Amino acid sequence: MNKFIGRLFIEGDIRLLTGLHIGGSRETVEIGGLDNPVIKTIEGIPYIPGSSLKGKIRCLLERARNINPKEGEPCGCGKCEVCLLFGSHNDKTKTLSRVIIRDSFLDQEDFKNNFGKYFDRDIEYTEEKTENIIDRIAGTARYPRTMERVPAGAKFKFSSSIAFYEGDDVEKLVKTFVEGMRMLEDDYLGGSGTRGYGHIKFENLSFYVKPYESYYKDNQRKEIGKSVALTDKDIVEELVKELKEVLKK
Asked: Which CA distances in Å does 205 have to 13, 141, 201?
C-alpha cells in the first residue's frame, strides 16, 4: 500500500429543486400513516444517507464509461478511476475507497425560515404527495398511494473528502468525482426520479486540503477554493493546481 499524502475536502449545500424521497423503514409506520415514509434521524428529521449519494454518483460514472459488470453489480476491475475512487467490488481486486461522503443533514434553521409559515408544527419537515395509476379504459384513478417527500427548496449540508496516496493521479481523481457530482445534478437522487422527484443542486461549495504533515503539526486544513455552483467552468483546473502545490510540499 502506498503512503497517504493528504486529503481534499469538498463541503457545501445540497438544495432540493424538486421534492425528495429516500425511503425509510416502514416498521414504525402507524396505522393510517404514510405508505412510503422518508428516511429520518432518530429525532424524526429527514436526512440524505451518504450511501445514497455515493452509490448514485458511482452508478452515473460507470454508465458514462460504458462499464457493464455482470448482473448489474458495481465495477470490480480495481484499475479504473471509478474503482480507485469508490473501491472495487471484487475480493480478488480489492482497492481502497478514496472517497468518503458523509450523511447530509437538513439545515433546520433554513427550513424554518423558508417553510415555517406552511407547517402547523415546528417538527414537520415533509409534505405528502398522493399518486395513482390511470385506468386506460375507464379513465379513472386507481391504486392510490401517498408518498412522503422533503419539499423542494429544502437545504442539506454536504460533506465529502478524497484521500490521496503516493503515485495517485490527483487531477484525474478530482475531475472524475466532480464530473459525477455534475451528472447527479442532471439526473436524480432517491426514488421516483422519472416522475419528477430528486432534482438537486450543489451550492456554496468550499474546497480544503489537508496534507499528511498537518495531522502531527497544527491539524489545520487550508482553503484552496470556493464555488457558488458546479457550473463554474474554471473551478476544477484552479482547484487541482492548488491541490498539487500543497501535496507536493
From this structure: 7, 44, 11
**Number of independent structural domains in the chain:** 1
Range of the domain at 75: 4-29+48-116+152-247
Residue-wise pLDDT for 5-44, tens only, equals 999 999 999 999 999 998 876 554 444 455 688 899 999 8
pLDDT of residue 57: 96
Residue 206 in domain? yes
- Which pTM does this prediction carry? 0.88
Could you tell me whether strands 141-149 and 127-134 are parallel, antiparallel, or unpaired per DSSP bridges? Answer: antiparallel
For the stretch 150-185, pLDDT in tens is 999 999 999 999 999 999 999 999 999 999 999 999
SS (H, E, C) the chain: CCCEEEEEEEEEEEEECCCECCECCCCCCCCCCCCECECECCCCCEEECHHHHHHHHHHHHHHHCCCCCHHHCCCCCCCCHHHHHHCCCCHHHCCCCCEEECCEEECHHHHHHHHHHHCCCCCCCCEEEEEEEECCCCCCEEEEEEEEEECCCCEEEEEEEEEEECCCCHHHHHHHHHHHHHHHHCCCCCCCHHHCCCCEEEEEEEEEEEEHHHHHCCCCCEEEEEEEECCCCCHHHHHHHHHHHHHCC
**CA–CA separation, 54 and 115 (whole Å):** 28
- Rounded Cα gap, residues 96 and 113, in angstroms: 41
The pLDDT of residue 112 is above 70: yes
- Residue 97 forms part of a structural domain: yes
Give the chain's radius of gyration (CA, Å).
Answer: 21
